[in-house]
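Researcher: Please translate sequence to structure tokens.
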Amino acid sequence: MPSRFRTLAVVLAGGKGSRLGPLTQHRAKPALPYAGVYRLIDFPLTNCVHSHLRDVWVIEQFQPHALNEHLLNGRPWDLDRNSGGLRVMPPFTGGHGEGFASGNAEVLWRHRALLREFAADEIVVTSADHVERVDLRDVLDAHREARAEVTLVTTEVPADEASRFGLARVDDATGRVVDWRYKSDDPFGTTAATEIFAYDARALLDTLDQLTHNRPDEDGDGAPELDDFGHHLLPALVTRGRAFSWRHTGYWRDVGTVPSYWQGHMDLLDPELAAPGGPLALDDPRWPLRTGAQLHMPARHTRSARVDDALVSPGCHVAGLVERSVLGPGVVVEEGAEVRDSVLLHAGVVRRGARVTRAVLDTHVEVGEGARVGAAGDDAELVVVGRRARVDAGAEVAPGTQVDADGAGVDLGTGARRGGPARA
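Model: Translation complete:
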């Protein structure tokens, strides 16, 4: 039965993802591969489609080309339609709101005229760099019942990571958000916003307009300094008393840093999380993750191959050792090569005798014969190798090194440049 509410879903897909280092030098964060054959943006788009939200805007900004190629006009999500469906929103010039935004609240302000023209009752706003499965119909039901101006989808995070997130203090009896703190060095709890928000459309747009009168145009581009939702918009709505929490108790992971991106892949190997019916069973027929990935031949394991506790994507050719790793489509692991505790994206090659341990290798990376990338041990820092970089035969890439496409290394912890044998 069609809803009597007019609902618009907005997917914020313009993030630069600078904390992911070389992995986002040439692509927007939402276009980053995940689990071999998927992309991060597949999660919000799949949540929208399975929740029967048929008007979906994807707002882009940074490096949109790979993202647009993947979106395929919305076809994989059944959003390529004459009325409604997927609408891609790039930055624009020549009108109110022109230019690039410096935060997600400013993104909505720059598109405010189009949002008002759409005349939605509700606007669901979601980021595109989290791994989660959420039925947005449940969120919207709670939002309407509470007559909320905003409903935050929240979850619990580890205390030592709480400062990375926007945190809500929630009245358990009513679900009302009574206090808010955004990425504070002094967190007051572990209840974090998952970057899914259901807004009353009029309250959202009117509040953005009100905030513009109080925020100066510091850079002279005609736009107020609204920054992210957590800086000014959510505090204003919380203060008014109509902000509520909807608790998400399932799997959720922010994969916006190298360690969290790597850990998100290791979670795919967890026998409970990825079991049939589990939260990371991405092909669950009740909620299959949709994507526009290209087709490949089935993966091939030769007689010399040994594969243990790994995900191996179509098109791979494995003749060596692969343990506790995720291989993207078309990856080659030659005989005598070893890959452990690593994530290799599309079309990488690990030559004979090479070892890759606790590393993330971007697409089309080649590790030469006998090279050593990373090291074993839970305390060993991760190595990141950028797209199309080549690690020379016999070279060693130390733990904690980032290898850019130009072959230079950057230390993950300090940002200091490292010389090294890797080259583009």
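Researcher: Any highlights?
Model: The mean pLDDT is 90.
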